[in-house]
Amino acid sequence: MNSAQLGVFMVGWEYPPHNSGGLGVACQGMTKALNQLNNHIYFTLPYSVPGGSSHMDILSCVAPSIVGNLVPGQLYSAPFSPYINTAKIPTSSFQLPLDKAKLTTLPQSEIESRVGIYADAVAQEAFSHKNSTDVIHAHDWMSFPAAVAASKATNQPFIAHIHSTEFDRVPNGNGSSFILQTEYEGLMKASRVIAVSAYTKEILVTKYGIPRDKISIVHNGIDPLSANRIPHDSFAPKRPVITFMGRFTMQKGTEFFLELAEKVLARIPDALFIMAGDGDMYHELLWKTASAGLSTSMLFSGFVRDTQRERLLDRSDVFIMPSVSEPFGLVALEAAQRNTPVIVSKNSGVAEVLPSAIQADFWDTDLMADQVVSLLQDTKQSKIVVDNQHRDLRLITWPKAAERINQVYRDVFLGA
Amino acid sequence: MAQICVYFQLHQPRRLADFSIFDLGDEAAKYVSSSENDTNEVVFHKVASKSYFPMLSLLKKLLKKYPSFVFSLSISGLFLEQAQQWEPGIVTLLQDIIATGQVEVFSETYYHSLASIYSPTEFKAQVMEHQRAMLDYFGVIPTTFRNTELIYSNAVAEQVAALGFEGTLTEAVPRYLGNRQKTRLYHSYTPSHLPILLKHAELSDDIAFRFSDKSWSGYPLTVEKYLHWLDRYGDEELINLFMDFETFGEHQWEDTGIFEFFSNLVAVAQDKHAFVLPRSIFAQFASEPATKLEVYDVPVPISWADVDRDLTAWIDNPFQQDSLRILYSLEKQILAIGDEKLIKQWRYLQTSDHFYYMCTKWANDGDVHAYFSPFDSPYEAYRRYSIVLSDIKAKVHQLLDHPSLKLIH
Predict the structure, then answer these.
(1) Total domain count for chain B?
(2) Looking at the structure, do residues B277 and B387 belong to the same domain, yes or no?
(3) Which candidate, B226, B258, B295, places its Cα nearest to that of B51?
């Protein structure tokens, strides 16, 4: 599609380097590719960003203007205050980055307040960019109230992009009713909805009752690795390494990883399982590991990023993503890029684009253990999986994703 | 006129190096940090200037001034190694005061380990290594044995007696002592009848823990008041004051007046009471075979730590138990490989402090554990330890699978 420039007012929440999950990374890949398609992007964030971006205009939407010149942690009092020493601006001010995973751990009143303040600030920015905005594009529930406000301020339609739902994050159904409600209202008010996978689309249809034909599926892409990259230094020689990487939450199926580890170790005693990440199930996982007598078989690397993350994926002999519910699962693609055979949960979006990866039900730890053992013992099979994964990867690009998003923009813009 | 038996513990662990999963299999990576400016060195310098130097200098003066003043020291091998490496002046001071003959030096496990609970053979090896160090550094052969954190049980007594020691010391725990006095000499519930000195927890902790506690009814603790408490004990009664050396200047800072207190206490107490050494108490007992001692029967191990005076500070939760299980399961294989460097690294991992940091008991004891731990939490202590343990285990398996590699070392 070749066309005139569209002004995209994109409502974000996190962006590299201030992100811990996949949302920020996805926004980066997506906006770069959309920019290549001749779109002009304004990208809002709920915190101040030093510097900027070469491919879009980043708008810091921090709190109402009164906060403007206050410094966190400093004492303030009105000029003629009858009391000495009044308010103290908390150091955890709204100006500091707070990624999506951490946001949900706050008390509900604070979540509401942060999301509400962001909506006000975004609306102000949207109003001042009214003339250059053709479409509003918002990522996940935290941005939906802001997108609704921006849509009113500009009188332009908005697109709700779903990277994950409360049903994914809290699979037992006890998710936050505030978040569920915010998701629902956003999805209903949006002109179009983009889901990161067919798996997610089904959740939106069945759990939220969103009309099927309102939802477009756009799988995430991934930036290819440089062809002449030098692999990182190896570690833990002679031991087969099986890796989990992600937040330690019920959603990610951490307990199933531990369960399958015990089954693999019964057959391959020197196997080394590494859990990379952090999360609310961390202490429980440590406790279970020690109780199962796996202190030297299951190691915890802590949260890894950048080079360490790459080193670990480079080194892994098998990568497992046993998520209970995974809208996409970018990390599986990263592992595949780094020549690691991947086992993914059937309840994942990434399985749709990486068909060469081995699939299993997250609860079927017997099967996953068999799969791990077979990959470790049969190097030929392992190599075939790796090669086929690379073939899949060639089709999973951000330009391709951007083309599809662009089509959604056009549909909305033209009122289709 | 009571007999006052004072003993100070000198120990500094070698805390773990910053060893991550990415160091697994790296031959050059160290398990315990020993490079310059690492945590161990920083801690050692700090405690040296606050406690070791001022207190040792004070003790040296007191020994000279009062020839009847005597006390005992137990010095872990790890303490000596680090003193030699970073503050050799402390070794010289120790040599000076031990040369006076007024200081008894105890035996203990070189690595300040829990070997007495897990492996009699490893226990013996570490006691022997410590004996050699005491002979090398101070020219003495200790005859009194002090186990890590005063850990004691009938089974421990058997091991100690088998190594030929004259006696040992531990905590007076009411569940085993009953309402008998802790100021008498007891003997073990073993055929060896090993003599045992029992710590006077109240009078020891008045100095070690409560000295500067303003909420304590005894505050402020004056020499007069303390002496008054000592005076309640009659002739032949033994008041065993056992405490960490760091009580002076580190746990109780200089500005609390702890140094003046101790100095004045020695000055006054040596007139009214007698300072004694465990070796003379044991020798006197041995020379009077007719003396009947009562039995201190301790079927389950006790220690001087925490409220419970048991082993739950080190061996309680799954982190500690699984780590210790795996650590000691390597003994036979590591000794069979016979690589001295590897054996040393493995022994560094046996230091009790590593397991103390993993303790998840809370309330008052938790505060004490947190104060001493280099880690943010017991979870982090376990996480970091398990990586190192995993590495040494893999190394052992690899060396056994490929014996030819032994030749390379």
Answers:
(1) 2
(2) no
(3) B258
